[in-house]
Automatic annotation (TrEMBL):
One of its GO terms (molecular function) is DNA-binding transcription factor activity. Signal peptide: none annotated. The keyword Transcription regulation applies. The lineage of its organism: Bacteria, Bacillati, Bacillota, Bacilli, Bacillales. PROSITE patterns: HTH_ARSR_2. Residues 5-100 form the HTH arsR-type domain. This is ArsR family transcriptional regulator.
Length: 116
């Protein structure tokens, strides 16, 4: 039997939308929707400082939208599939064109980084 996702309170929806309303955070979510990224990769791709990127990632993680995996000094981020807001995240991200100019520019900047 297929079960429907748990309904969210209006505050959970409002908080999720609020944290995703920032263009940088929205693009971070779009990127990590399909694969895990190291914070150092995201810093290079977005061309922002590490502290600024950490602020964005921290807000997404605090809201329960991202999960963090640590390996040594490095931190890797991906969508938290167990988030109570995963359905909301998926609906919003599905509205972003995979051919969006800014999204494609970020993907072009992606480089394999040896975070060992």
């Amino acid at each position: 039997m297929i079960t429907s996702p748990k309904k969210l309170s209006y505050m959970e929806v409002a908080n999720g939308i609020k944290v995703m309303s920032d263009p940088t955070r929205l693009l971070i979510l779009k990127l990590v929707e399909s694969k895990e990224y190291c914070v150092c990769q995201l810093v290079e791709m977005f061309d922002i400082s590490q502290p600024a990127m950490s602020q964005h990632l921290g807000k997404l993680k605090k809201e329960g939208l991202l999960k963090e995996r640590r390996r040594g000094q490095w931190r890797f981020y991906s969508i938290d599939e167990s988030s109570s807001q995963i359905s909301l995240i998926r609906v919003i991200l599905s509205q972003i064109d995979d051919e969006d100019e800014q999204f494609l520019k970020l993907l072009e900047k992606e480089a394999p980084i040896d975070c060992q």
